[in-house]
Design a protein that fits this description.
The complex is a heterodimer of chains A (114) and B (114).
Chain A lengths: L2 E4 L4 E4 L4 E3 L1 E4 L5 E7 L5 E7 L5 E4 L2 E4 L9 E3 L8 E11 L2 E6 L3 E6 L1
Parallel strand pairs in A: 2-12
Antiparallel strand pairs in A: 1-4, 3-9, 5-6, 5-10, 7-8, 8-9, 10-11, 10-12
Chain B lengths: L4 E3 L2 E4 L5 E6 L6 E8 L3 E9 L2 E4 L8 E7 L2 E6 L8 E8 L8 E2 L3 E5 L1
Parallel strand pairs in B: 2-11
Antiparallel strand pairs in B: 1-3, 3-8, 4-5, 4-9, 5-6, 7-8, 9-10, 9-11
The chains are: A mainly beta (114), B mainly beta (114).
Chain lengths: 114, 114
């Protein structure tokens, strides 16, 4: 079946540091890939997405490239801010016989300190 | 659009009581998902609907859990009787037609069963 594996947290960085959160997936065919962010006490918000191989999703300085050859969708940001502290979820969507089902990774907590 | 609306935001109930969580999806969306989030198990898909029809309820933990979607603008998740281990944050999400569409999440209902 479909699955998403992402690096365990928490990840603690200093402000302006470079961020990478690894995500790999297992799926048949060509799923769509997503990164969601969850701020404390809130629901998940879509951060970025990519729908086909070699697509790059980007938003708010975050980027991720859909790599089919390595089945990966790593999240990167060149310079993190304290306000980026949150939990980040990698997810895939694959149209199955039953519908458009999202599969999430376990989430990676990011803490950014001054 | 106001987004996905869930009520109540917080619910505290005694063990054995019936609990009903409510969700109003975004107008025009034809998929509706119910998720449960806990520290131990992360984000779990409980059930999802397409065009008001339940497609996959394999994530519903026990017969004590039931979900309905009587029309395109309303869904409920009911737990009867509730138990302390049901304490979690329950999220509703909806997504529009299209196999590569992302899901939009509500703010969640934090349920505490004492």
């Amino acid at each position: 079946g479909n699955s998403v594996t992402q690096m365990e947290g928490p990840v603690t960085l200093s402000e302006e540091a470079f961020l990478t959160i690894n995500c790999t997936y297992t799926a048949t065919g060509y799923p769509s890939l997503f990164w969601y962010v969850q701020y404390p006490g809130e629901g998940l918000q879509l951060l970025l997405k990519a729908t086909k191989a070699d697509d790059k999703g980007s938003n708010k300085g975050f980027e991720a490239t859909y790599r089919k050859e390595t089945t990966s969708f790593h999240l990167e940001k060149g310079s993190v801010q304290v306000s980026d502290s949150a939990v980040y979820f990698c997810a895939l969507s694959r149209l199955t016989g039953g519908g458009n089902k999202l599969t999430f990774g376990t989430g990676t907590q990011l803490k950014v300190e001054l | 659009d106001a987004g996905v609306i869930q009520s109540p935001r917080h619910e505290v109930t005694e063990m054995g009581q019936e609990v009903t969580l409510r969700c109003k999806p975004i107008s025009g969306h034809d998929y509706l998902f119910w998720y449960r989030q806990t520290m131990m198990r992360g984000l779990e898909l409980l059930i999802y609907f397409n065009n008001n029809v339940p497609i996959d309820d394999s994530g519903m933990p026990e017969d004590r859990f039931s979900a309905k979607m009587p029309n395109a603008s309303f869904s409920t998740l009911k737990i009867q009787p509730s138990e302390p281990r049901d304490s979690a944050v329950y999220f509703c999400a909806s997504s529009p037609p299209g196999q590569r569409a992302e899901a939009f999440f509500g703010q969640g209902t934090r349920l505490t069963v004492v």
